[in-house]
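Moderator note: this is an archived Q&A kept for reference. The question asked for a predicted structure of one protein chain; the sequence and the answer are reproduced below.
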Amino acid sequence: MRILVIGGGGREHALVWKIGGSPLLRSRADLMCVPGNAGIEDHASCLPAPARGLTDVAALADLAVKERIDLTVVGPEAPLMSGLVDELTRRGLAVFGASRAAARLEGSKVFAKEFMQRHGIPTAPFEVFSSCRDTLDWLGSTERSFPIVVKADGLAAGKGVVVAPDRASAQEAARAILEEKRFGAAGERIVIEECLTGAEISFFALTDGESATPLASCQDHKRLGDGDTGPNTGGMGALSPSTDLDPDMERRIMERVIQPAIAGMAEEGSPYRGVLYAGLMLTERGPMVLEYNARFGDPEAQVLMPRLESDLVPLLVAASDAGGRMRDIAGRIRWRPEWAACVVLASAGYPGSPETGRMIRGLEMAAKVPQTEVFHAGTRRERDGSLRDRIVTAGGRVLAVTSLGRDLGEALNRAYAGVECLSFEGMQFRRDIGGAALSRLAARPEPLLGHTPREREG
């Protein structure tokens, strides 16, 4: 097979790394990535993005035709929302990812909330606004209680959500989105919803539009600072499996969150194929949806891919086909028994205005830590004065250090040992990834690992 991966972040590095190990690829030349990054170059041929970027779906489809690609794997959300899957499908090419209409589950918070309301999927009560004055009037009512969540409607790179602790901060968030246009067209409308409390987990399922199968569970760490302080980010670390998921909860999530979404999209004429990611809060009322995403999470993909023992490529092919192949392959997915932990290294200024162009040191040393992979998120390769290659920062999130271990503690120790090997000017990272999960595990009489989806099956 010849496979093309679209994207250039940590998620795409993890996908390329896993796909590259498939026996279905005859050689490294059969795996390409647009645009890739300095780490992805070690596993695939990296091709430049079109001049108009990854939303130029015609140019990307032309490339897939020219390179005789058998399967295109779309990583980020922007090309999904721009209709890349639709264009490739129109040309008769196989593609893993959601159509433009199906990707509205991620691309529009308003669509997603109203969709969940129509189909009885549990989520927080909400209101939708397009006028800043109307929003401020509603927030000013004495009936409002806080904290409350303010969300920009469209894609905002994981930064369009504000958990406002009081009325003043909620009004400030509304002004920033609707008046100051901080997120451009993504902020034409906002969703304001009840702030849910409980354990937050990431839940992934592969689907061909009819049947679905869950993947291993994950927990993300969204806040920038230790102790879940500071602004929301795209994700500062992750672990797998979740310490808050058991078989009963997995079943409830599939029945109440995943299957109704797939059935609902089919009913509304937009069959959902690919990977469906539900960000969930496990509340006293049961699992409730915070958001849907139409792609693998980042950094969740960086802990899922190392734990996946099965060949990823047949799973991607099955989820790209409307022929019901997902149902046949689901029971054969195997997961490694180890835990996985990931620590993200970010640039100074992230998530606002990250500094770039800083030289990265220690990559070779970090790669020597046992059962550890350093996935590149925002990097590029350049030459210094002596014409030697060097790797520099090229984004907000720069690297994701992921390790496996017999237990969560060992995985975290290895990941942080890898972090200690690395350095670049202004490097920032959280020092408490997995800390709360370790505390929960210590309070339990038995380990949780056997509760991960499909690990119990032979």
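Archived answer notes: The two ends are 28 Å apart (CA to CA).
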